[in-house]
Protein 1
Amino acid sequence: MKKIFLCYLLLLSLLVIASCNSAAKTTNKLNPVNINQTKTSPSVVNREVIEFKNEAGTKAFSLKILVNGAKLVNGNNKEIARLSVDEKQKVKIKNSSDAILGYIVYREDRWKIEYGKQQLYVLQKQADGDYKLENGQNKDIYRIKIRDYGYEIETPSKQSLYKIKVKDGKISLRDKADKTVLYTKSSIVTIAFVCFGFDVLKPEQKAALAYSLNRALGR
């Protein structure tokens, strides 16, 4: 009797296991696992917002950092430009209509602003820690000098244009009269913020260059 009882338990166990396996297969057929559904689209994941304000404290624009790039939006949260990064850290700049406006190409302390095959500008770090911005013909446009308060943007003839001051968690862009033009309390590398004082650049180019610098030198 004991052997018969054990055989009965074994048979019952096998039937239960077979039933569970069958149910699992049926469930998988009804609800197939889609790997893509487990991933959030990188273009919509907002990791951080770097907000820029004018002297009055009104939001001027923001740079929304995404998984694979960023979005530049105006004070009303309307999209101005989209930035995306490839595997070589090349930043593509597109406007809100999806038209390509150019690229930022980064290589070893050198940032090139390109459009098609044309090199428009180059930002280059110098041996002493200063920076300079040149045009596509290697002509100096700005010299960015390190100061005890942050940075100063000068012409090649050493005429002061802007001062970038860092104090109490605030980075501000100040004109020759020491009037605040733009400021942020968001986390951004100071030299990246300097780009917003490059008046020869378009807003999309400033933002893309700042983003590339912050990405390379920040986090």
Protein 2
Amino acid sequence: MSATPESLSDQAYELVERMIVTLELPPGSVFSEGQLSQRVGIGRTPLREALQRLSGDRLVIAVPRRGILVTEINVAEYLSLLETRMVLDKLIAEQAARRATPEERGELRALSISIVKASLHENSDAFMKYDKAFDRILEKASRNPYAYQAVSPLHAHCRRFWSVHQHHGSLFKSAELHATLMTSVADGDAIGSGEASDALLSYLISFTRTALDLD
């Protein structure tokens, strides 16, 4: 069975977002739809739909007569992004702790182990994969589509920032904080999940200020 246009658009979105987040398409780089279509092996129509979504996420900008520009990281905007994430992430974590299914709780427990193992091996690629999987499970488990639709693009910006500045942070510390949050949600501890979410975001804010030499 061939893929539907919607699934191709989703595939294109996931592929290009990953290329941006992992710096395969670094900030400030410019490409054409045709070049990217060949690169990802997906036609222009679903790719164009994906790029429109990424433009809404503020990860790319269409520049007349130049092509598609990958946005730079704006320091002031990024700090505002983290402030917004702190509010939304806490809401999602608390709701997920209350509403997650047994299957989702099991997935979170397994991920909490995997993400720490990845950090112990200094495997950033695996860490990022588990981090995104965690976000997806948590967003779904919250049963709050408005909150997770608002926060999902913010997570992509944060993963990209980490890719650029990870030498200033501790992969193990970040993994530990993620694992604590996963476990709290899996245990159905809404209060603990909110506290764990705040602790993770506080670390990310501290990491950002260190990376940008703002202290």
Protein 3
Amino acid sequence: MSVTVTHVWKPSNARLVTVDSFIPVPRGATALAPHPLNWPAKDPGDILDYILDIAPAIVGNDGDGIATLDVSITPSSPGDLTLQSATADGSRIILWLSGGQPDTIYTIGCAVTTVNGRSLQRSVLLPVLLLSVPLVPANALLTAAGVVLTDQNGNPVLSAN
């Protein structure tokens, strides 16, 4: 007897970033910009969920949460990183991202409005790197040392045979 299995989807904490808390600056001191937020690198073939938690921005405001979200991705040319879907769960933004060009660092901008009317804008960096080893076609040209010859785009050069 075949049974269809249902699953409860839960975002992965492996790609969770939390906004910096709001730290008061003493009078007369200059506030320093925090380090950029960033997620771990992804492969162009990955389709993964990425989380941005804004809880520190709304701490102490029970009942406040994300009401609206506007997401931007730069650069944004054909073949670049793509937003598959976006959702919010309380203080967490969950983005499903796919694609991207290798050796490119993308900036994902999130403009949030909360239920209580607060506005927050943050950017998170996402590097895209070739993390998987592509299969080498049987007709790829090799050097004497056994290294695959590639063109200027990193694609293997193939023999006519």
